[in-house]
Amino acid sequence: MTAQQTSRPDLRALTQEWVESFNRHDARAYASFMAADCYLDDVARGMTCSGSEVVEHACREWFSVTPDTHIAFMTIIVSGLDAAVQWVNTGTVAKRMPEPLEGAVIGSRYEVRGVSILKFNENGTIQRVTDYWNPVEMIGRSEP
Question: Which of 50, 62, 81, 112 has the fewest CB atoms within 10 Å, i.e. is most exposed?
């Protein structure tokens, strides 16, 4: 193993800590794992965020809409500076959701499966996140 390999951050552990901050609903901690000039692409919602401050704001909004949101890991795969995370997000819709989720019933529970692809910098901060999930699972499977 080279010196560079031994000094590289543990991306699996960082990914787990990142999601744990989400599950604590700590938007500031969640955004702190991301590079200042990061880019988040939520494909299902057609939403993009540039910069960790914008990600923090978007996270706070999501917590207000789904105050008991929780992500459970299914699989984490790390290769080089890339990680893929398969997850299940559960929660309750507390207020009207933004497009394309406006059809979700307030008070309903949801369970959504998805995958996030992460690109890390050498220092272990997240440079890019692309989330893939099906919004129909949130709207169509929600139960009051």
Answer: 50
The Cα–Cα gap between 73 and 59 comes to 18
Fold of the domain built from segment(s) 3-88+113-132: Nuclear Transport Factor 2; Chain: A, (3.10.450)
C-alpha–C-alpha distance, residues 62 and 25, integer Å = 9
Whether the upstream peptide bond of residue 144 has omega within 30° of 0, thus cis, is no
Q: pLDDT per position in the chain (144 positions), as tens?
A: 444 455 778 999 999 999 999 999 999 999 999 999 999 999 999 999 999 999 999 999 999 999 999 999 999 999 999 999 999 999 999 998 877 788 888 898 999 999 999 999 999 999 999 999 998 888 765 455
Alpha carbon distance 92, 75 (integer Å): 24
Tell me the pTM: 0.87
Q: Which residue is it, tokens 């129909």?
A: 136
